[in-house]
Design a protein that fits this description.
single chain; alpha+beta; three-stranded antiparallel sheet; 11 strands; 48% helix; globular; disordered C terminus
């Protein structure tokens, strides 16, 4: 049995040597650069939840970017370049119509700032059916049931565990197939993106100070690492019938496919009842740009088609838009390539971890409490605009982080985890929350310091400088982040001062009952006493995406990244 197994391995090796791999897999210079890329991205600390010093972060980025530049120069242009996008619109729409899609009142056009989108040809009423795309036109993993790519994906643990990455590989394989059924769709997909993944060094510097810079560099690192892994797997696989082995596997083409999936992936229900929803690329529908509203896209399981209804009434000439979901500007910029003013769902993610210099027993108690209320350490917590900027999770973490040893022991004695979670995440403030509020005040204030420009300077540039494209998107992002952090700093400070004054009054006989009221109740009391509260602007309405997020697993919605 052992000898036979070795013979089989030798025969497989011999067969593999007969396969003429494409230059992007066989060229020694390319392979050396891919190995360098693997080594650098595998040993890099970009996945840490603690922001590294700007100099170290930028040094890592420059090294990775340098290897990528050399790799792309060595590989040269794509073996199958795409035609001009706008010249392909007519063939694409004819193909869609011929294959059963319905979009009679819409056409593809170019719009200022946003680029490609859908223009209304005839009046569309609110909730009128505007787009119907049959499942036969939708790209999912099911299209490769009889293709050579199926064997490669099913045997690779990474691709099996990452359906979004598998979908990108399917798309790239179809791009390399000149006779692909989806050729009309592939030809109208973007060839360049406004994702930070495509930013120049100078453009990326505009994110200096923003938490998004770390995420952008991490995204580049992770995608580059995935490329180096799959590059090695394809070399070992050596299937003469697999286009990725024989036509090409260029880094630029891989990033293109990944970007298409990142910015367009959605979910549709599987035909099998017990199977998870399928990640999908939905032609034409994915050309609709975003506007705040409501999700009115569904998947009709009877007709097996994606159906999109209009969010509002549209007149001829207007741009038809859909709602991508409750997503902040950082998420939209990283995965869709845009940010917009007045985003009611915007957040700033602040990274927080426990101190490593603390006494071991105290640190373990904090870790145990956080584990019991299901909070990961280190972690990233969202801070929002409005009068309740801090989530219950962030409040709970901060209480545990700043608690005294005596208070930690008191919480450890609570045996019921639900009772513990209710206690730690309660929005009822007491004197012992002064340290927690002080920490949040200082943390949010410190996060404002690394930015190169002030909030006022950014606002002036946006108003009077007429920025466009990527620069405008980054300005909008920075302005929103600074407003959120400034607001959170002020509110944490105000609540801390209220508790300090209440504690001082309590020493002179004031009832403790008044000190445990919710912030909103305290504000009501102030109004009754004649102290008017300053009104919030529309942009500062209380929004809590965590509590309002709907389960849309069976509805197509522009989705997330490959990190």
């Amino acid at each position: 049995m052992g000898k036979k197994s070795r013979k089989q391995q030798q025969q497989h090796k011999s067969d593999a040597q007969k396969v003429k791999l494409c230059a992007s897999l066989s060229d020694k210079g390319v392979c050396k650069l891919v190995e360098e890329l693997w080594n650098k991205t595998s040993n890099w600390s970009g996945g840490s939840s603690v922001i590294p010093p700007p100099a170290a972060l930028w040094e890592d980025y420059e090294t990775i970017r340098g290897i990528i530049d050399a790799l792309q120069q060595r590989q040269g242009p794509s073996p199958l370049p795409l035609p001009p996008r706008q010249e392909s619109y007519g063939d694409f729409l004819s193909w869609m119509s011929h294959e059963g899609a319905k979009f009679d009142k819409l056409e593809i056009d170019e719009f200022p700032e946003v680029g490609c989108g859908l223009r209304v040809r005839e009046t569309i009423e609110e909730e009128e059916k505007a787009i119907v795309v049959p499942e036969s036109l939708i790209i999912t993993k099911n299209i490769i049931s009889k293709a050579p790519l199926l064997a490669f994906i099913s045997q690779d643990p990474l691709l099996t565990a990452m359906p979004n990455l598998a979908l990108a590989m399917i798309l790239l394989n179809e791009r390399y197939n000149s006779d692909s059924f989806w050729r009309p769709y592939i030809n109208v997909l973007p060839q360049e993106f406004d994702l930070p993944l495509f930013y120049s060094r100078e453009e990326l510097q505009e994110l200096h100070g923003s938490p998004v810079l770390l995420e952008a560099v991490s995204q580049l690192r992770n995608i580059s690492r995935l490329y180096s892994i799959i590059h090695q797997q394809l070399r070992s696989h050596s299937d003469p019938h697999l286009l990725l082995c024989t036509v090409g596997f260029h880094y630029a083409d891989f990033v293109w496919a990944v970007s298409c999936v990142m910015s367009r992936q959605n979910k549709i229900p599987s035909k099998k009842h017990n199977e998870e929803p399928l990640l999908a690329l939905i032609p034409l529908w994915d050309m609709a740009n975003h506007n705040t509203g409501r999700i009115l896209t569904d998947f009709d399981v009877d007709t097996r088609s994606c159906v999109c209804y209009s969010m509002s009434k549209y007149s001829p000439g207007e741009e038809f838009r859909i709602f991508y979901g409750e997503r902040g500007n950082s998420d939209l910029l990283l995965n869709q390539g845009f940010a917009y003013e007045g985003n009611p769902y915007d957040i700033v993610k602040i990274p927080i971890g426990l101190s490593r210099g603390e006494e071991e027993m105290t640190r373990k108690m904090r870790m145990s409490l956080l584990d019991r209320i299901k909070l990961k350490v280190p972690g990233q917590f969202p801070v929002r605009s409005g009068v309740t900027p801090f989530s219950p999770e962030l409040i709970g973490f901060t209480r545990v982080f700043t608690a005294s040893l005596e208070l930690l022991k008191e919480w450890m004695e609570l045996k019921d985890d639900k009772e513990l979670q209710k206690t730690l995440t309660s929005d009822k403030l007491e004197y012992r929350d002064i340290k927690a509020l002080e920490f949040l005040q200082n943390r949010c204030s410190l996060l404002l310091h690394p930015y190169k420009t002030s909030l006022e300077e950014d606002e002036a540039i946006l108003k009077h400088g007429s920025p466009r494209g990527r620069v405008r998107n980054m300005l909008i992002l920075r302005i929103s982040e600074k407003r959120i952090l400034k607001n959170a700093t002020q509110l944490a400070g105000q609540e801390k001062e209220k508790l300090q004054k209440s504690e001082e009054k309590d020493k002179h006989g004031v009832s403790k009952e008044d000190l445990t009221k919710l912030p909103s109740e305290v504000e009501d009391m102030n109004r009754e006493e004649g102290h008017e509260e300053e009104k919030e602007s529309p942009e500062q309405d209380i929004i809590n995406p965590l509590s309002k997020m709907e389960d849309t697993s069976n509805e197509p919605t522009h989705s997330h990244d490959l990190d």
